[in-house]
Amino acid sequence: MFTSVFLLLAVLIDKLFGEPPRFHPLVGFGRLVRWVEGKLYPADPQGESVKRMRVRGAIGLALLLVPLTLLAALFDWLPYIGWFYTILLLYLTLGAKSLDQHAAAVREALQAGDLQLARQRVGMIVSRDTSRLSEQDVARATVESVLENGSDAVFATVFWYLVLGAPGAVLYRLVNTMDAMWGYKNERYLHFGWAAARLDDVMNYIPARLTALTYALLGKRQDALRCWREQAPTWYSPNAGPVMAAGAGSLGVELGGAAVYHGSLKERPSLGLGHAPEAADILRAQRLVSRGLWLWVMLALAIGLPLGYFYA
Question: What predicted TM-score, i.e. pTM, was given to this entire model?
Fold first, then answer.
């Protein structure tokens, strides 16, 4: 019962206040990740075997995850005030309001006709080169980011909170942050970031498919399920594929296609059915994620409250 109530309170706090204005713990964690990387990454990576590079990355993963997750568990289990830290930790790991604000900033720039500003703003939430994107490309990149990050920063966080409590939400967001920093399949991180990327894949497997189902239920259900079934296997990520295919089908837009990452053109499969995204579709994607989050909260309350009374 308390688990679902704490979830409701954390979501409300996030909706009201968003991220802390000055310092976010995940930003500090990102700096810590860079520091650990500097200590563990070899000066001469060419002289290291694949196995040794993976071991180095796995050691870094353990050093960063274990103490902080145990610390979160300690705060969560404190008598009398543990509930406060549970809500606080869940609020700090949720990224719903932040994601919504970033997407809204891009949408507003597009609607104002300021393509250059829209390119700059979308560059804050995607890793591709945005300097030459058209209006449709900017809208497409933003919708893709909302759908994919809706899974990572919102639904997967809630899932692991419901499974393992606040320590689960903290563990997941730390893993997800490390994957965002070490999970690239380039020369530097292909092996060093292997452990972080694989753990992120494992922790996202079930949440990604629940997210895809959520998107399907709240939009064009048949199209979403069809795109999930037929198009998701063609995507390069086993977890992002179902999320983005189902989301695109639910919204009735076409995502994917060629994009420039780190100076190289990457040909990506097409996802979804319908028209190329426009500024208005960004708002529709935002609302899809928001409705999905409230659906999860209501389901948690509908299940948790009766169980709480039954076992009381």
Answer: 0.94
